[in-house]
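Fig. S4 source data, part A: sequence.
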Amino acid sequence: MAYETIIVERQGAIAKVTLNRPDTLNAMNQTMIGELTAAFTDLATQQDVRAVVVTGAGRAFSSGGDVRGMLAAAPETTGDTVRAMIERVNRMVLALYELPQPVIAAINGPAHGLGMSLTLAADYRIAAMSASFSQAFIKIGLVPDGGATFLLPRIVGWSCATDLMLTGRTVPAGEAKTIGLVHQTVADAEFANTVQLCAQQFAAAPTQAIARTKALLRSSQTTDLTAQLELEREHQPACAVTADFREGVTAFLEKRPPVFTGR
């Protein structure tokens, strides 16, 4: 499928989705939001894709929503038009969040506003040292969206999330690692190679077990222990009949690295 504002590439079992409006620091307009939704929805059905990388073209991950576009539309802006726009944003975030494959947000530069929110929906975040983060919504009189009010407190804690959202301050990569916002920070010169190695590691993992682990982590945010134990009881037998489980046990007994196929 051809896209105007994103690039989707395949390298073996790894799919790479690149936000591609570098002249705007990859600001997300309605076209990009729709194309990201379509791309994530399509990748969810591709069983031969075993890891997904989301990154930005040029020197930014994403500066957030397209503020210039918002200003141009301001005379016609109503509560209904904003509500419709946020519904499209919500579909995009859910399409990413619900991907069965492990998702790496490769944050190559600033990730502000909706750009930062998008990274929170990924499973694993790697930031170049030139990256920065900001919940900048408050600076233009808006509340955070893109799921940030749900995801950010669960990632960095209530107090830290409150700080970031009420001040809109910019967080450099080093602090992002300290507060648990990202999993790794990497020198810019090593960034691309580190992301590739991480994606390869996930792509070589037992894919069905990862998908079910993701589902269990998601459900744990809204359920109690009794219900979560029951969900584990449902998912574990499904994993125990996979070829990857048999391979994992065989490799363990033979004292060799396992070769998982995703089946």
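Fig. S4 source data, part B ends here. The first strand starts at residue 6 and ends at 11.
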